[in-house]
Amino acid sequence: MPRPTKCRMICRFPQTLEFAPATGGERKEAVILTVDEFETVRLIDKEGLSQEQCSQRMQVARTTAQKIYDSARKKLADALVDGRPLKIEGGAYQLCNGRNQFCGADCFKQELHQMFQKSKGDDTMRIAVTYENGQVYQHFGRTEHFKIYDVADGTVISSEVVSTNGQGHGALAEVLHALQADVLICGGIGGGAQMALAEAGIQLYGGVTGDADAAVAALLGGNLAYVPDVQCSHHAGSQHGEDCGGHSHGDGHQCQHGHCGT
């Protein structure tokens, strides 16, 4: 029986998931670059790391990082030389939540994780709300602030407004992951961002409007009005849901909720 694939630690999801030639690409089969393959290209070619440093960041053996990178470069060559569309999706990966000691200094999640770390065994529920001027902000991918509520025994025990520090679109799901949020209340949100939240184990209540504090009180009281199949109506019809934080996370082979084979 083959060994399960070990999940590769990914610091950030790619911001753009599809590329296509200006002409003729729609008639050709797309090249599929996995998220972990993309990460090796980002770390080695964009950030200038060695393969050894890349393997440390991704928490895999150097030979594994080399194989992933070689596969990625071959796929990029196929797309460029043959004029084929390129899609980024799937792969065996786990999203970094700020605890990866090998992450670079540019990992914004490290500081968030340290600031909002829960103690071991803490059963506090943490609710995040997209927030602007006391209201539930309506466009997830553009939100500049979350209001964080810690709840114990059905009662809010503390709350704090947290800046996203310019982290827009898909990175917002990563911000919430680093904040160790259990629940998100928001307005409109793209389908890909919903998948990213589900992967991080964050329960979503979308399509909510009105006062943020009142929405949290309604959730705790069991009478929050929300839309189970919410989409971002403000950008309906736009591809991939970019403006609402949309990301496509592949073909079902990625790691769910951070649980991976070893």
Topology:
Layout: E1 8-10, E2 18-19, E3 31-33, H1 35-46, H2 51-58, H3 62-82, E4 86-88, E5 93-95, H4 108-115, E6 125-132, E7 135-136, E8 145-152, E9 155-163, H5 171-178, E10 183-185, H6 191-199, E11 203-205, H7 212-221
Parallel strand pairs: 1-5, 3-4, 6-10, 10-11
Antiparallel strand pairs: 2-4, 6-7, 6-8, 8-9
Helix pairs in contact: 1-3, 2-3, 4-5
Describe the structure.
The protein has 262 residues and is of the alpha/beta class. It has helices at 35-46, 51-58, 62-82, 108-115, 171-178, 191-199, 212-221, and strands at 8-10, 18-19, 31-33, 86-88, 93-95, 125-132, 135-136, 145-152, 155-163, 183-185, 203-205.
Strand content: 15-25%
Structure summary, number of beta strands: 11
Low-confidence stretches: 234-262
Q: Count the helices. How many?
A: 7
Rg of Cα set: 19 Å
- Based on secondary structure, the structural category is alpha/beta
Helix content: 25-40%
Q: Could you give the distance between the termini?
A: 14 Å
What is the overall silhouette?
globular
**pLDDT average, as an integer?**
79
Give helix and strand order, one letter per element, not per position. EEEHHHEEHEEEEHEHEH
Biggest sheet record: 6 strands, mixed
Please summarize what this structure is:
The chain is α/β, with parallel strands linked by helices and 262 residues long.
Protein traits:
262 residues; six-stranded mixed sheet; disordered C terminus
